[in-house]
């Protein structure tokens, strides 16, 4: 069309409100700023979260079970708040402004967190309140930041341009690459500073990093493409209206007495015949099809169907979300009791073992993007190499394998502790090298490359433009609810397996006498059940047609 010939990107404008020109905006020139900002922000986040269990069980004096529950609840909250952040961004602020404002809130939270670490913990109730208040303020800042910056980055690639559309699949790969490359320094340098020098300095550096992330993002302002906002109500309101109207009309029978053939065919000719109950949102109380401003247009019904189409896949992925919360909590506690020495004078911080996951991801993503995807394109003809569903299913299978290995290694660690008479000595180091943990971390990292990126791409691609931030926040809720479910499981299991005084059990403070291996077997089973459910839903899943605003 004319717009394509003139290099104008349909539905997008530049920073001055003019139609966006392909040669001057968007694509990799813009997404590089976004990827850089994302990597720096992840450094800040993991600088806090990766070693949090050590801080809670150390200076704050919490038990292992309480600390793991606190982290899971905080992380889960941070991954559920994007549902609120997406609503605010799509309804009022827009993605760009939401990213800037949430970044400023993020920096404030990290500043307060650093201040709390400077205080003398005894612990004092007021100091503890400041610490947790800062953590949850940080979670609030993430609420708008996480879904908006990913959606905004993907927006820089034009749906209607073949080369840019193909590159968008690579964007999701490189976005996750940067999200894992950023934390590597945090897992090595910051964890060492926090464990051996100062928690205040270890928290202050992430605050500076968050400020740098905002600066990098602002540098790209003039090169970004911005979606032209529709004059109509926001997509979230439109979808909500569809569900409300369909529920109100659930008893209404479509009229067959109308002589207008075009009106009779309106409902049957919706693009998707899935979820037919939503078609009733188009009906008036007398069963006829409504038109005009009062009625709900067909596109709005299609928007609602596109969103609900993802719900079964979302539900079946919750098991994966539970497993994903383990490396920063129980995996770390597992590593604390093992021989982590390299040479005669250096001990690897237990939290830094998560570095292996990040390192695996940054090594495997280029291999996947430059080798697997081109070969997949030749074999399947799919621009992404394989479908998103195939990618997610592969990752969930690998995740199950990782938990099986974790259970077997933990069983060996406990057996070694018993053989050396260390089962009753909680703080004793077991003469078993941390290298035994490497396989579970590596397979876990490869699993992430398949599952996380597949979910991001699926939830972005399968909804209309106005719902992309919402869909990505729903994807993030998989991880958030997974953390809550993990915390709930830990609480229930500890109550059931501990004695009347709350001692012992699967999550005993004496890790050498606990049974994390039982929990890992349970998680392997939960994730395997989720994989089976996912495969069943994937068989009937229908990819939606792109719906332009």
Can you characterise this structure?
This protein has three domains: 11-232, MFS general substrate transporter like domains (Growth Hormone, Chain: A, Up-down Bundle), CATH 1.20.1250; 235-255 and 272-296, no CATH class; 306-544, MFS general substrate transporter like domains (Growth Hormone, Chain: A, Up-down Bundle), CATH 1.20.1250.20. By secondary structure, the protein is mostly helical. Helix content is 65%, strand content 4%. The chain starts with a helix and ends in a 9-residue tail after the last helix. α7 packs antiparallel against α19 (468-497), α8 (162-196) runs antiparallel to α9 (199-219) and α14 runs antiparallel to α20. β5 and β6 form a beta hairpin. Mean pLDDT is 81; it is low at 1-5 and 258-266. The chain contains 20 helices and seven strands. This is Major facilitator superfamily (MFS) profile domain-containing protein.
Proportion of beta-strand residues: under 5%
Inertia-based shape? globular
- How many alpha or pi helices? 20
Major β-sheet profile: 3 strands, antiparallel
Model regions low in confidence, pLDDT < 50 over at least 5 residues:
1-5, 258-266
What value does the average pLDDT take? Answer: 81
Number of structurally distinct domains: 3
CATH architecture of the largest domain: Up-down Bundle
Class of secondary structure makeup: mainly alpha
Features:
549 residues; mainly alpha; Growth Hormone, Chain: A; 3 domains; 3-stranded antiparallel β-sheet; two-stranded parallel ribbon; 20 helices; 7 strands; globular; disordered N terminus
């Amino acid at each position: 069309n004319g717009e394509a010939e003139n290099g104008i990107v349909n539905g997008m404008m530049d920073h001055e409100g003019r139609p966006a020109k392909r040669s001057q905006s968007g694509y990799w020139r813009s997404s590089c700023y976004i990827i850089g900002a994302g990597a720096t922000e992840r450094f800040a986040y993991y600088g806090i979260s990766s070693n949090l269990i050590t801080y809670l069980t150390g200076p704050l004096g919490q038990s292992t079970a309480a600390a793991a529950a606190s982290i899971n609840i905080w992380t889960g909250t941070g991954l559920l708040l994007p549902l609120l952040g997406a609503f605010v961004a799509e309804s009022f602020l827009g993605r760009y402004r939401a990213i800037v404002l949430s970044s400023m809130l993020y920096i404030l939270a990290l500043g307060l967190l650093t201040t709390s670490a400077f205080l003398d913990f005894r612990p004092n109730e007021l100091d503890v309140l400041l610490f947790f208040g800062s953590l949850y303020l940080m979670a609030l800042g993430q609420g708008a930041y996480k879904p908006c910056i990913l959606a905004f980055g993907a927006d820089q690639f034009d749906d209607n341009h073949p080369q840019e559309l193909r590159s968008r699949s690579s964007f999701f790969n490189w976005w996750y690459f940067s999200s894992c490359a950023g934390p590597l320094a945090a897992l090595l340098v910051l964890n060492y500073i926090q464990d051996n020098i100062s928690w205040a300095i270890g928290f202050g550096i992430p605050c500076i990093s968050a400020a740098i992330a905002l600066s990098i993002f602002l540098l790209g302002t003039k090169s970004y493409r911005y979606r032209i906002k529709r004059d109509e109500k926001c997509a979230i309101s439109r979808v909500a209206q569809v569900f409300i109207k369909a529920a109100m009309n659930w008893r209404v029978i479509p009229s067959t007495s109308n002589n207008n053939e075009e009106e009779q065919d309106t409902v049957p000719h919706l693009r998707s015949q899935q979820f037919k109950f939503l078609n009733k949102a188009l009906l008036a109380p007398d069963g006829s099809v409504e038109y005009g401003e009062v009625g709900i247009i067909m596109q709005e019904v299609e928007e609602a169907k596109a969103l609900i189409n993802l719900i079964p896949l979302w539900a079946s992925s919750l098991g994966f979300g539970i497993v994903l919360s383990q490396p920063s909590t129980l995996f770390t506690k597992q590593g604390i009791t093992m021989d982590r020495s390299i040479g005669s004078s250096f001990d690897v911080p237990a939290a830094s073992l998560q570095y292996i996951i990040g390192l695996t991801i940054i090594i495997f993503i280029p291999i996947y993007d430059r080798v697997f995807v081109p070969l997949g394109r030749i074999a399947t003809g799919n621009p992404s190499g394989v479908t998103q569903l195939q990618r997610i299913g592969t990752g969930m299978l690998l995740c199950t394998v990782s938990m099986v290995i974790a259970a077997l290694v933990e069983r060996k660690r406990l057996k070694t502790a018993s053989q050396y008479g260390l089962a009753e000595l909680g703080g004793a180091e077991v003469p078993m090298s941390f290298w035994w943990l490497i396989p579970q971390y590596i397979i876990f990292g490869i699993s992430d490359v398949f599952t996380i990126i597949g979910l991001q791409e699926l939830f972005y691609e399968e909804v209309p433009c106005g719902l992309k931030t919402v869909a990505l926040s729903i994807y993030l809720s998989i991880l958030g609810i997974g953390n809550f479910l993990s915390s709930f499981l830990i609480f229930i299991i500890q109550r059931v397996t501990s004695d009347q005084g709350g001692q012992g059990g699967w999550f005993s403070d004496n890790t050498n006498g606990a049974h994390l291996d039982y929990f890992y077997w349970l998680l392997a089973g939960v994730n395997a059940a989720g994989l089976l459910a996912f495969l069943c839903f994937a068989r009937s899943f229908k990819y939606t047609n792109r719906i332009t605003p």
